[in-house]
Amino acid sequence: MTDLTALEADLIGQIDAAADVAALEAIRVAALGKSGSISGLLKSLGGMSPDERREVGPKINGLRDAVAAAIAARKTTLEDAELDKKLAAEALDLSLPAVPRRKGSVHPTMQTMDEMVAIFADMGFAVAEGPDIEDDFHNFTALNFPEKHPAREMHDTFFFNRKEDGERMLLRTHTSPVQVRTMMSQQPPIRIIAPGRTYRCDSDATHTPMFHQVEGLVIDKAIHMGHLKWTLETFLARFFETDSVTTRFRPHHFPFTEPSAETDVQCDRSGGELKIGQGSDWLEILGCGMVHPNVLRACGIDPTVYQGFAFGMGVDRLAMLKYGMPDLRDMFAGDTRWLSHYGFSAFAAPSQAAGLS
Ligand code: PHE
To answer: Any idea which fold 108-342 has?
Structure first.
C-alpha cells in the first residue's frame, strides 16, 4: 500500500515549487489526471474488501481534496504574480513631463500687450474693445477731424468699396474710435484702456500696414494734465521696470485733444544698448492730450461738467524698445527662428505681483 502521507508531502512540495501555471498543470495531470497517481489509488478502491475500503477510502479522498485545494491556491498565487508582472511591464508613468516636439511661444507684441494690461488694470483701468472695421463717424467725425482732413485720404487709410448707400467702411487707423464707443455707451466716470490692431497704408523699418496700439481714456469731473502726466510716468516706470522715468511733453496737434502733446522718454543710447531713465537722449513714445470739448459733445457728454485725458501708444514700438528688436517688420514676418528667439513662454502670464517679463 502506498504511503499516503509521503505521497501528499511529495505532491505539496512539488506544488509549492511550481514556477508557473504550466508546471502546475503538469503536476495536476500527473496526480489527478485520468492516469494520475491519485486517480490510480481511487481506482484501487474497487478491488478492496468493504472493511479495507471503509478505512482507506476517506484517506484517499482526503488526499485528493488536499492536493486539489493546494493546486487551486498555488494557481491563484501564480496567476496574480503573472498579472502583476504584466501590469508592471505595460505601465505608463503619466506623471512624467511630456517631451515637447514643437514649442510654441507668445509673440513679443502679445506679451507686451499683456504687460500693459496688467499695469493699467492695477491702476484701476478696465479693458474696452471696438471693431477693426470702422465707419467714418467713429474713426474721424466724432473725433473732431475736419471734413477735408488729410488723414482721411487714401494714402493713410485703408478704405473698403462704397456700399450702395454711399458709405465707405475703413480699417481703423487708430484705437481712438474706442474712446467714442465707450463714451457713447457709458456714463462718466470712465477709466479704460483699449488694446487692439490698427491699420495704415505705410511700410518701412519703423512702420507696418498693421500695428498695435493701446488707447487710454479717463473722464471725470476734475481731471487735469497733472493726472495724465502722473499716469503716464507711473506706467512707463513700471513697464520699463525702472524706479522712475523722466518724460518730456512736446506740444503737438491731434484734432481730438486740446492741448495735445507727444511724449518722449529720457534714455541713453550711448553704449549701443538702450537704457530708459538715464542719459541725454529722448525717444518718442506716445501721443496724448486733454479730450477736446467737441469730442465730448459728439458723444453726448457735457464738457462744462466733465473733462478728461486720452493717450495712445504703439505696442510694437514699446516691445521693440523693451526687448531690443531692431526692425519692426520682423515682428510680422512669421519667421519661426525669430519667434523662438524673442518669444515668451505661454505659462508665464505677466502680472505686477509675479513679475512682468
Ligand atoms: N490716436 C493717436 C494716434 O494714433 C494717438 C492719440 C490717442 C493721441 C489719444 C492723443 C490722444 O496717433
So the answer is: BirA Bifunctional Protein; domain 2 (3.30.930)
